[in-house]
Amino acid sequence: MGDRVKRTLTLSFLLACALLYLGESLLISGQGQTRGNTSLSRWRPARDLNGVGYVGASACAECHAKEARTQLTTPMGHASERAADCEVLKTRAPLTFRNGPYTYRITRDGDRSIYTVGDGAATISEPVLFCFGQGVAGQTYIFRHGGAFYESRVSYFQALQNLDITILHPRAVPSSLEDALGRPMSQEATQGCFSCHTTPATGGPRPQLERAAPGVSCEACHGPGERHVAAARAKNLKDPQIFNPASLDALELSQEFCGACHQSFDTVMSLAGQGGAGNIRFQPYRIFNSRGHLVNDRRLSCVACHDPHEQLQHDEAYYDSKCLACHLSSAKEPKTEARAAPACPVSAKQCATCHMPKVELPEMHYKFTDHWIRVVRPGEAVPR
Ligand code: HEC
Ligand code: HEC
Ligand code: HEC
Ligand code: HEC
Ligand code: HEC
Ligand code: HEC
Ligand code: HEC
After folding, report:
1. Using a CB cutoff of 8 Å and minimum separation of 24, what contacts does 164-168 make?
2. At residue 229, does pLDDT exceed 60?
């Protein structure tokens, strides 16, 4: 615990330094107005940015075909879909589930998917509005009922190819048909889901949820692009007027940028009990706990191992060179200033298979990759 507090302090200290540094550079550049758009230079994902218009990924694709070709087909690019486009529902419906007397059915009718819950006597049916999650592990359904957005009580799970109880919803038999339906979401909770799984689509004072573009695409990470597109068309990109995360240092990138959606160390620490077993899903938190890896070093930032514009690499050999950027490959190899971390006494390849093990999260019916890099001893519990 003392260790954790120390790490929180370290991170807060580093962030404070970063902010101070940023404050200073803004002061300096403020005089010459070199990068006038200060709101974009402080851009972070999953936050509203007032006043600047969003143009949509197809506009970016005109000039950045390379990034667009792959990014828009990744699971992140499809982190949500409108029901009409939802691959899982198009190909897997009807989906069914039973909990005590309550039956669940999701059926497909042309472009529509209908979520129906029954108790033998009565039923409630609502059209699905959005599918949340590509279904790598699972997918949850968002619909409207009685004026509020709802999160479905049951979700699709890839491993089951069918429905089961949604993570963090009670497994107990519901107390009523209304209760069986799912969870009504506060405006804040709805906003939260959308800010991590969609891309804002309006330039008005507040992006409107139902007009949001499904999936995490260009402007979810680079900020609203209206000014950049205008500047590019005018061939005046001295100030590109778009956020480039390459300007962040490694900790800012992992914790504040990717961590805005994947959950930073600080956010998880502020959850009671660090989010419990579920924190296996929160890679920025997990990696920041790894002994020897809490450093502000680009070789360990999220983009050292993952290009957010490309598909996730599943071949574990791909990651060896990432580890060997710091670790020696044998005890005989001489240390250099850049590569001084110890060699493995066991193996010189497939590092991630042993040191980043796959850990099952039973409620998601899925094995996540533990980003808490460590020596795994047989029989030892997964650290939380
Ligand atoms: C009319 C063409 C055009 C359009 C449309 C366009 N860009 Fe660009 N963009 C450029 C050019 C040219 C550059 C500078 C050269 C380069 O990096 O490719 C650039 C640079 C960038 C950079 C790097 C900026 C930096 O600080 O170095 C990012 C990030 C970017 N664009 C993202 C986007 C996004 C996101 C969209 C859609 C909202 C978009 N662009 C739309 C032409 C365009
Ligand atoms: C705006 C929110 C958001 C941001 C910012 C974000 N992600 Fe994601 N990411 C998601 C969501 C949501 C998913 C889940 C997609 C799905 O499977 O439905 C995801 C999935 C992923 C995956 C898994 C893809 C797969 O094939 O299963 C990787 C890897 C990933 N993100 C890396 C990153 C990295 C690296 C960054 C920072 C450069 C980042 N993400 C920033 C929201 C975000
Ligand atoms: C703070 C950002 C954030 C919020 C808020 C959020 N998610 Fe996610 N969600 C993610 C990220 C990042 C992932 C990918 C990592 C993972 O699977 O946990 C993800 C994954 C998922 C998955 C699994 C996707 C897959 O392909 O397996 C589902 C389903 C999902 N979210 C549904 C929801 C729903 C429904 C809500 C709102 C009630 C919500 N999420 C709110 C960030 C968020
Ligand atoms: C999940 C977040 C995320 C999404 C979505 C995303 N990017 Fe990026 N983008 C990044 C990060 C992070 C970098 C910096 C990468 C680095 O430093 O290696 C980057 C860099 C870039 C650059 C600058 C490349 C360079 O050579 O400097 C361009 C251009 C770009 N992105 C365009 C796009 C376009 C177009 C889309 C949509 C099709 C898009 N990005 C979607 C995170 C994202
Ligand atoms: C040293 C390399 C490395 C770094 C750094 C790294 N990852 Fe990963 N990541 C991996 C490996 C290995 C996998 C598993 C790939 C596979 O087998 O499918 C993975 C998988 C993922 C997945 C897919 C879900 C899962 O658990 O399997 C997400 C999401 C993800 N990483 C996000 C991130 C984020 C966010 C960061 C930054 C905090 C990050 N990663 C940093 C190596 C890395
Ligand atoms: C930025 C450099 C860097 C990268 C990249 C890196 N490591 Fe490390 N690693 C270190 C340092 C430094 C230590 C601490 C060494 C010490 O003090 O004994 C360490 C420690 C370790 C330990 C021992 C941890 C413990 O609990 O004793 C393991 C295992 C490990 N690394 C595996 C990996 C693997 C596997 C990868 C790739 C997925 C990787 N590392 C990537 C620098 C790095
Ligand atoms: C087959 C599983 C396996 C693979 C593959 C593997 N390791 Fe290990 N590694 C271990 C085990 C087990 C230990 C603990 C050995 C001990 O303490 O006796 C260990 C120890 C380590 C240590 C701690 C060394 C020290 O002196 O404290 C580091 C660092 C490390 N491995 C890095 C790596 C890297 C980098 C790779 C890939 C080049 C890798 N490992 C591949 C199982 C593996």
Report:
1. 164/97, 164/365, 165/99, 165/363, 166/140, 167/138, 167/278, 167/361, 167/363, 167/364, 168/278, 168/363
2. yes
Give me the DSSP letters along 163-182.
Answer: EEEPTTS--SPPSSHHHHHE
- Residue 49: pLDDT band (50, 70, 90) is low
Q: Whose CA is nearest to atom 33 of ligand 6?
A: 323
Q: What is the pLDDT of residues 60-99, one digit of tens each?
A: 999 999 999 999 999 999 999 999 999 999 999 999 999 9
Q: What is the DSSP string of 179-248?
A: HHHEEE--HHHHHHHHHHHEE----SSS--GGGSEES--HHHHH---HHHHHHHHTT--SS--S--GGGS
Q: Percent of the chain, pLDDT > 70?
A: 87
CA of 295 from ligand 7 middle (Å) equals 20
Query: How does residue 18 score in pLDDT terms, banded at 50, 70 and 90?
Result: very low
Q: How far, in Å, from the CA of 358 to the mean position of ligand 1?
A: 37
- Ligand 1 binding pocket, CB closer than 6 Å: 55, 59-60, 62-64, 218-219, 222, 225, 228-229, 232-233, 237, 240, 242, 244
86 lines ligand 2 (CB under 6 A): no
Ligand 5 within 6 A of CB of 261: no
DSSP β-bridge partners for residue 142: 130, 151
Contact 331 CB / ligand 7 (< 6 Å): no
32-36, 168-172, 212-216: lowest mean pLDDT where? 32-36
Mean per-residue pLDDT over the chain, rounded: 88
Residue with tokens 């850049």: 338
Any ligand 5 atom below 6 A from CB of 368? yes
